[in-house]
Hints:
This protein has helices spanning 2-7, 12-18, 23-51, 55-80, 115-124, 154-163, 167-176, 181-213; strands spanning 89-90, 105-106, 109-110, 128-140, 143-152, 217-224. By secondary structure, the protein is an alpha+beta fold. A 4-stranded mixed β-sheet has the order 1-4-5-6. Strand 4 (128-140) and strand 5 (143-152) form a beta hairpin. Helix 3 (23-51) runs antiparallel to helix 4 and helix 6 (154-163) packs across helix 8. It is rod-shaped and about 110 Å long. It starts with a helix and ends with a strand.
Amino acid sequence: MQVEARKAEMTPLQYLSRGTDPLNPAVLLEDSVAVVGVGIAAAGVGLTHVTGNPVYDAAGSIAVGGLMGAVAIFIINRSKTSSAGRRLVRLPPTLRRPFLHRNRTFLGQSVPRRTRDVVRTLEADEMVLTVQDVKSVLVGPQSARFKAEIHFNPQLLSDKYLAAHNNLREVHKTCRAVETEEDAKRLFERSAVFLLATLSIEVDRLEHIVRTAYPEFKYIDLEVL
């Protein structure tokens, strides 16, 4: 659990109460209760044997039961606030003001801690004009989903297409050969297909950048705005 706490940049106590993984704390608490319970029960039985007073045995049983009940309630409440199964959370249209609390919640929902970093990485790319309608959610202890709409730079997109494989020369040659409206229509349709292919490549490139830099985001959905 200490390793997972360090990954989440939390102390073990913070991770125990607010971490995204409910399994490790549950195992730790259950094992701890078992060990402590054995000690309390042994003390109760021992005191009853020495003193002949059965109150000690009964008190030990009550203490063990109360301890187990308290831990069970803690685990239930913690599991209720666990991230798994949360619906997508819509983030603010602008990320200039801080929206992430240290316990990873926003408006009562679970938000991956590095969501803002992903948005900044996308906005820093020269091909991206804006990042809008950002939504992210934790879908498991070590996995998250990220969705956003990307407004691409049309000028850079066109430049990238024309710079590849002598496309500019070919487009120029084709334009000079246009004589009828049908020729112009075919030219437009062909250019549209190649521009969409270039756009698809850019989407895949951005998703690869995010997935490499932020491996916890295993499900990435970038839509063209």
